[in-house]
# Entry
Amino acid sequence: MKKSLKIIISIIIVLLLVGGSFLLGKNNSNNKLSKLPKPEVTEGERGQLGIDKNINESNIDKYLGRSDSVYRDVRMLKDPGNYEAIGGDSYLSGFVKGFEVVSLPYIIPVSGLPEAVGDTYTGKTLFRLEKDKYVANYKESLDILEYLFPKDKNIFLMCGGGGYAGMTKNLLVSLGWDENKIYNTGGYWNYNGKNNVEVKNKVDGKTTYDFWKVNYHDIDFDSLVEIDHE
# Structure
């Protein structure tokens, strides 16, 4: 009887070891990162904004949560521009899960917006455009940019309609980032995936915004050292 019990226990231990090894191997296989398609600008009007053909609002869910990537939504929490005039929302009404907010208008002056939008933010920025080149306004400007958009990661960009994301990619590439690691995934306004995080609430005719849900990177200009260019 004792011998039979030992045999049974031995069999159970072997099965547990084999099963554990199988599950571990399966998990390792699942955790292996798939190769990303090379960034490729799509055609038509969306292509003019720089939106990617292969990774965009329609399939971004497949590429979320990668350890080799960062996800940045470059809208403002409340943009002075009238984006309602083009079917959007001046407020950050929601975002895709995993995206952190870094507001582009605080990084560079924004231009080339649709006429109906009017003027956007015109305050302090980390960089300014001088003779078609971006010049730092603060000693910390480049350090901040490299921290928020790390060069050793793939960078997935999103905004409302795709324009701010395209401007952000152009900025990064002009300052030395690898264009083949940056994806303009388009606009949140066109996103219908399963990772939507609602920020906008409407109850009894009153609209509120849960900005506490947003992983927001603030830029405190008062704490920065301004560069004297004179």
In short: Confidence is low (pLDDT under 50) at residues 20-31. The CA atoms of residues 111 and 120 lie 9 Å apart. The radius of gyration is 23 Å. The beta strands are 69-73, 94-96, 100-101, 127-130, 133-136, 154-159, 182-187, 196-198, 200-203, 206-209.
